[in-house]
Amino acid sequence: MKHLYTPQYRPPGFATVPKGWELIENPKLTPFNRADLPRSSYNFGVIAYPEQLSASDAENYELTYLGVRK
Fold this sequence. Notes:
The chain is mainly β. The protein has one domain (2-69). It has 1 helix and 4 strands. The chain has one helix at residues 55-60; strands at 2-7, 22-25, 46-49, 63-69. Strands 2-3-1-4 form a 4-stranded antiparallel beta sheet. The chain is globular, with a radius of gyration of 11 Å.
């Protein structure tokens, strides 16, 4: 299972989200150009983690939880 998040104010990258993330959807507003991934409807794309982040990590990194994908 993958726990999905979208960054609220900046694209995912070094020090902008907790370690261990995986890009699931290309951001709508930034230049990630992964041809193997769909373009997101979210401004900064969708990232996934194997485990759900703590509420404090999600809040501190300004991430919105989107649910689970199998």
